[in-house]
Amino acid sequence: MVQERTLPTFNPATTQITKEEGLWLYEDMVLGRLFEDKCAEMYYRGKMFGFVHLYNGQEAVCTGVVQSMRPGEDYVCSTYRDHVHALSAGVPAREVMAELFGKATGCSKGRGGSMHMFSAEHRLLGGYAFVAEGIPVAAGAAFQSKYRREVLGDKNADQVTACFFGDGAANNGQFFETLNMAALWKLPILFVVENNKWAIGMSHERATSQPEIYKKASAFNMVGVEVDGMDVLAVRAVAQEAVARARAGEGPTLIEALTYRFRGHSLADPDEMRSKAEKEFWFARDPIKKLAAYLLEQNLANEGEIKAIDRKIQDVIDEAVKFAESSPEPDPSELYRFVFAEDE
Ligand SMILES: Cc1ncc(C[n+]2csc(CCOP(=O)(O)OP(=O)(O)O)c2C)c(N)n1
Ligand SMILES: [Mg+2]
């Protein structure tokens, strides 16, 4: 018998969603899922090297938050589990796949690989290999929006930053220091903890004196909310409120999304630590199936429309692999390029 934390309930009748929006959320989540499945396949075929951390199961968190922002204009900051955050932020799948293959056409020009997706164009502030490393970077991005708007008088500088990180990262000192500054300066930022219950093989309950992370917000006089991270509509509702708060100059929000990764920590992890019962509890809450069922039930989509999206995305992924395979390796003569920002 697994003891799972009670997921907060969400009544979808309290939210407004059009057919177009519903299908877009579905498409974005399917893109994340099918991309990661293909990534696993390519990894086991020896097409990429180093650690690769997949996002399967957590799609509703990324989609619910990023699609409540203005992708390409607002900032997104990720972790080493970053492929899907990059995709939702608008980085083309072919550029993410090429980066995984270490090719010159990758979004980090083949220099970064799985844990270092970056795109200035799409305002993706990066994947970060060190746990919690992105948190202060995201606060810096939020600070510059506020500074440009309030000090330099740039009325267009109303960008919001979403900062994603894990439950394990929320025990790192950078989390506490950054939340303090962000609340003090009322920075336009969403701190999104993807609580998937595990930090590699360390259970969150075992590592954390107060496992309800959202409650830590009150220590900084910040709004803290928990949300069912397997329900994209619930995440979206919470994110929309937090984005509105940030844009209105009312400061940050700490969102704790309760979620689960459907695969091991990385593709090198045999995933033997987690119990079958626990996995089954969460597999039954697959966010993609949940949204599809909702769209059908509400007559916002029919089976044919759902299947058409699945097929369309599969084509996008297949094309991404072809592009990555046929792209050139970075030229060794360019080893020292792209070290400084001025060399674009
Ligand atoms: C500063 C630092 N310490 C330790 C590690 C090794 N490490 C890599 S991932 C990880 C677990 C982090 O778990 P969590 O923040 O919950 O994210 P998740 O992997 O569950 O998405 C650890 C300890 C690291 N990368 N950086
Ligand atoms: Mg975790």
UniProtKB/TrEMBL annotation:
Reactions listed under catalytic activity: N(6)-[(R)-lipoyl]-L-lysyl-[protein] + pyruvate + H(+) = N(6)-[(R)-S(8)-acetyldihydrolipoyl]-L-lysyl-[protein] + CO2
GO biological process, alphabetically ordered: pyruvate decarboxylation to acetyl-CoA
Secretion signal, residue range per the UniProt entry: none
Required cofactor(s): thiamine diphosphate
Keywords from the UniProt entry: Oxidoreductase, Pyruvate, Thiamine pyrophosphate
Gene3D superfamilies in alphabetical order: 3.40.50.970
SUPFAM superfamilies (alphabetical): Thiamin diphosphate-binding fold (THDP-binding)
One annotated GO molecular function: pyruvate dehydrogenase (acetyl-transferring) activity
UniProt domain Dehydrogenase E1 component: residue ranges: 28-332
Superkingdom in the source lineage: Bacteria
InterPro entries named among the record's database cross-references: DH_E1, PDH_E1_Alpha_Subunit, Pyrv_DH_E1_asu_subgrp-y, THDP-binding
Pfam family, one: E1_dh
Entry's EC annotation: 1.2.4.1
Class in the EC hierarchy, top level: oxidoreductase
Assembly mode: Heterodimer of an alpha and a beta chain.
Function: The pyruvate dehydrogenase complex catalyzes the overall conversion of pyruvate to acetyl-CoA and CO(2).
Protein name: Pyruvate dehydrogenase E1 component subunit alpha
Source taxonomy: Bacteria, Bacillati, Cyanobacteriota, Cyanophyceae, Nostocales
Gene responsible for this protein: pdhA
